[in-house]
Amino acid sequence: VVPDPGAMAVTGRLELSVRVRRRSEAALVRDARAGDAEAVEELFRRHWRGTIRAAYLVVGDAAAAEDIAQEAFVKAMAALDRFDRRRPLAPWLHRIAVNRAIDWARARRPEVSTEGERAAPPDAAAGLSEELVRALAALPADRRAVVVLRYLLEYTPGEIAGMLDLPRGTVNSRLRRGLDELERRLGERP
Amino acid sequence: MTRARVSAARDPHGARTRRRATARELRAALRDARAPGEDAAAGRALERVLEAHAAAPAVAPRRRLRPALVVAAILLAAVVAAGLTSPGQAVGDWIRDVVAPQRHVPAPPAQVPPGRVLARTGGGVAMVDAGRAGRFGPFRDAAWSPHGRFAAVTTQDLLLAVTPAGDPRWRVRPPAPPRRPAWSPDGFRIAYLAGPQLRVVVGDGTDDRLFWGHARDVGPAFRPGAGREVAWVERDGHIRLADVDAAQLLWRSPATVPPGTSELSWAPDGNRVLAAGRNRAVLFDLRAPRARTIRAHGLAAAAFPPASGPPALLVRNAGRSEIRLLGAREPLISTNGRYAGLRWSPDGRWLLTRWGDQWLYVRRDGRRAVTAPAEGDPLAWTR
User: Fold this and answer.
1) What are phi and psi of B261, to 5 degrees?
2) ipTM for this model
């Protein structure tokens, strides 16, 4: 199929930025359900970064984070007809991505270093110090996920409890322990 | 008892205070955190998401009203609007929302492929990052380093290495105006032309020297995966291949390049090199004694992809232009108008050409094309 670039020029980026970007999220979800690819693109644009960053901080592996975030979007788009569009989309996406990231991190075998060599550090995130990446990576996956949801994505403990199907007290205790451990590890820096 | 004392009594070891401080520090650190390669990943993921969305059945909007009810609502709105401006406006908005036609035909996606493109414009070189253009500098030619951390650029007198922000790191002043720089795959050498000379400089700007005295005005090209072996076109029209460190000639093409050749394009395996001129291209195989000629009336450019696959050809004929892969029966795209230049994306999934005042991105499988306002002639594309 040879697309008609003339038609695409008409519906190009400029129009997308003005018309689609003004739509509310509920309208975008409605249009995406009706088959509008532009609406999907705009939803993707709004939520991609938060989703991949959360996945990355939980798994510490850029390639895996990309797969997880992509999978979350694909799943979400496939299930849009079941989504209540009066609700925000982000918690739903983040719930899928973070739960998948926890599974991935749990299933991953610990890195074994050969004698005299250090285990490979997690991929360095742009804008984050290596020591913080290491300190986060040292937390258990479920604790790390709670910390990421709270301090990267700014969800409340109650919302996190709902996303991860946990009692709120468990979320609070994981947050406390996570912060204590991070403080201890970061305090060890020279 | 003061508030501080109460707090101290509840938190005798200061744990809560320390946690708050850690939380503040963490929140500030995470605010600027990015996943490595998240923008490049976005381009790949969006394609997959759009494919999944296109494969899913569309769901008709639930809001459906009988025509009679709609008419009644419109009348009601008109009546209310006549008497009460503000509520009338509100009802009018509601009516418009209810009766507005839904879009059932998906619009074509308009996502520009990711990466940074250096382009020659009237005022110098511009850098276009994911569709957004920025001025790079008053340069003539430009080439990205292998990982896109620097660009080699030329002015009337100078060859410079500049950062993506356009800040110079070093400069050399060759004896003649420099042009057509090219980086070695490891980033440690730059070959370029200056007058009739082929010159080579170390990647940190040191040891700039003459390498070959008589070269044609065809951009030199380092052989992929072979250390520091550069190919250029000699004055007699034959391609030469040499190791720039050992100063050792390795190969001379059995035939000359076609007239009009301005670039050499290596296959990613490093065994074949393509020279495209007017109406024909010649494909040289270093392991074969004879070259293969590809004839195409109106051929204007040809380039191998950075990963495996056949080269792409740009052909202009009778007011139309097309891009096709060598050996394919159908073009990837064919339209009226004139395409200029042909560049592959770093991942080999897209081709870029200028089409009048538009940049035309064509996916390698021909199933998608995207246009964006042109920012000059594309010179180099990196991640």
Assistant:
1) -70, 130
2) 0.80
